[in-house]
Amino acid sequence: MTVAVDGLVRPAPRLRGRLELPSDKSIGHRALIFGGLSGGPARVALREPGEDLLSTIDCLRALGVSITERKGSFELIGRPSRGATLDCGNSGTTMRLLAGAVAGLPLRVTLTGDSSLRARPMERVATVLRAAGAEVETGGRAPLTVVGRDRLAAVTHRLPVASAQLLGCAALAGLAAEGETRIESPGPTRDHTERLLAWAGVPIRRGRAATILRGPARPRPFELTVPGDPSAAAAWLVAATLHPDAELTMVRVSLNPTRLAIVSLLRRMGADISMIPTADAGPEPVGEICVRGGRPLRAVRVAGREASEVIDELPLVAIAMASCAEPSELRDAAELRVKESDRIRAVVAGLLAIGAEVTELSDGWRVGRGVPRAASVATHGDHRIAIAFAIAALAGIAGEVELDDPDCVAISYPGFWSDLTTVSA
């Protein structure tokens, strides 16, 4: 039986397979930008780069970095050397990290993007860069214009939110500062910036209270094969966990501890998930993640630090919550309202459409099992909403689901529909 055709997804009779996932976006963006700042030659191997990573490549080229591609390996030569208007597409990571990178260069750069990205808050970026001495013009959202300089000030940044993108922006600006840049975060963030910069020879470390970088510094050229994306793996973790007849393995996935909160959360709910370390890909641990279905899940409350640690996977967490006999609750996730869409509103609307019992909260939702039914779901052009509700149908949490924009998954996971067909065949 065909389970997915033109955005219409049906429950699968079983799920089986071994999947090699697209390269991790968070690592990929940083590897490309740091490679460009190194002067090269640097080589970054990417499997199935989505539209977000291609936006970073296009922006670096517009800044004067020479990038050639052969069989998924991108060679970067030369540093950013000219001002430009950069189209970051839908990628907030591209915009925030490149803003930090060009702040320490004598360039005038305007960063813009699609309508979704132009609606997302950027004043936090401006505040960080102005504190370091760069000139930033913005109305609080994109487009923003950064007028950089050769030397910035070494300052202490106290970030208003726990954001790996904002931390990365501050660290990149710190590369051009004389002395110690200290970045304090109110909560946990992914540590890819610290891992990759340290691996490339930059004096940076993450302590208990702060990330500290000593400048001026420049990454040395490197070669890196970017491992698979744990956020892409989360789709299959949830699908197999919820399905009564499922066994899936994801190979060559990043096992970075700051990215595995989704595994801990699903295990707390009762999921059967195992991880097998196999190798390191430069600064990142790599391995396999295996998941088997058939276990009923327990209701959970997700809040505080845990909510921030699984922020990208929360739409999928909502699907898992909708399988539980008792209500589950998410709080402290207001940041979801300023992602590619208002993900709280989009998730709640989708859950109501597929028959779940759900209440929208200002900073999350309360959800319990309902009566699954067929539905049309609005994705709002948001790749994570599209993937979450495709998984809801595949695993039987919904009846068949029709997505209004199935192609938006290409932002992060171009091969998603192909992999869905493979595991449900």
**Sheet with the most strands: spatial strand order:** 1-2-24-23
With helices defined by DSSP (H or I, 4 residues minimum), what is the helix count? 14
Q: SS-based structural class? A: alpha/beta
Provide the CATH topology of the largest domain: UDP-n-acetylglucosamine1-carboxyvinyl-transferase, Chain
Q: What composes the largest sheet?
A: 4 strands, mixed
Shape: globular
How would you name the oligomeric state of the polypeptide chains in this document?
single chain
| Fraction of helical residues | 25-40%
**Domains, number:** 2
**Low-confidence segments:** none
Strand content: 25-35%
- At CATH's second level, what is the architecture of the largest domain? Alpha-beta prism
Strands, total number:
24
What top-tier CATH class of the largest domain fits best? Alpha Beta
Termini separation (Å)?
8 Å
Give the full name of the CATH homologous superfamily of the largest domain. Enolpyruvate transferase domain
What Rg, in angstroms, do the CA atoms define? 21 Å
Average residue-wise pLDDT:
96
